[in-house]
Amino acid sequence: MIHNLPNILTIFRIVITPLIVWLLIGFNGFSLHLLAFFLFLIASLTDLFDGMLARKLQVVSEFGKFMDPLADKILVNSTFITLNILDVMPIWITAAVILRDMMVTLLRWAMLANGASMNTSYAAKLKTTFQYISMYVGLVFILLGHFEALDALVAWLEEWFVTETIFIITGIVTAYTGFHYLWINRAFLNTLFVEKE
Q1: What's 2-193's CATH class?
Q2: Measured on CA atoms in the order 102, 108, 111, 112, is the torsion positive or negative?
Q3: Which of 34, 51, 88, 185 has its CA 20 to 30 A from that of 115?
Q4: Nearest Cα to 79, choosing from 68, 65, 66, 93?
Q5: Helices (H), the chain
Q6: pTM for this predicted structure
Q7: What is the 3-state secondary structure (H, E, C) of 64-112?
Q8: pLDDT at 197
Q9: What residues contact residue 95 under an 8 Å CB cut-off, 6+ apart?
Q10: Contact 154/101 with Cβ under 8 angstroms?
């Protein structure tokens, strides 16, 4: 059982994502939005621990290598789309996140299909950090919106572009890592577009 724990955590992250989205979009009560926040917190922690546990327990598997990044993308993209629907997240950042993930995923699949190994971007962890910060900020804003007494705090944060700055940095870092993946894997891309003699 313990050896399957990393994969269980990964699958849990996939399964819990629709519930988080449903709680946020389908209801307008503070308690259910707070539940969605805590479920997202747990899901994001599984993102941190599943890979770490797999390496520590020495149970790294092809299933885990494939499902872990897929689970990350399902959670992150679904949350960004939900925050956009709720008018908390700017649409251009959501678009940047989705397009970047699609591009990197297609590149990874193309390289796997051709027996090539993908070079990973050193900035990928920074991208993940900022994306999670942005999602937490968006979820906290939803919770703050339930309290009229905190309207002044929300207005102050917006007036001083606190949230906007975080979102903009997230969008820039996300876009940069997408282009960086293309650049560091350009040798493979050249083989696709350059005719072989």
Answers
A1: mainly alpha
A2: negative
A3: 51
A4: 93
A5: 5-26, 30-56, 62-85, 91-113, 124-144, 151-159, 162-184, 186-193
A6: 0.85
A7: HHHHHHHHHHHHHHHHHHHHHHCCCCCHHHHHHHHHHHHHHHHHHHHHH
A8: 47
A9: none
A10: no
Q: CA angle, corner 140, sides to 43 and 40, nearest 5?
A: 10
pLDDT of 64 reads 65
Sequence ranges of the domains in the chain: 2-193
Q: In one letter, which amino acid is 145?
A: G
Segments in the chain below pLDDT 50? 195-197
For 24-79, the pLDDT digits (tens) are: 999 889 999 999 999 999 999 887 776 676 677 666 666 666 778 888 899 999 99
What pLDDT does residue 81 have?
A: 95
Pick from 59, 66, 67, 61: nearest CA to 13: 67
d(CA 145, CA 168): 22
Looking at residue 124, what is its pLDDT? 82
Provide the residue count of the chain. 197
Q: Is the dihedral of CA 130, 65, 188, 74 positive or negative?
A: negative
The rounded distance, in Å, linking the Cα atoms of 166 and 161 is: 9
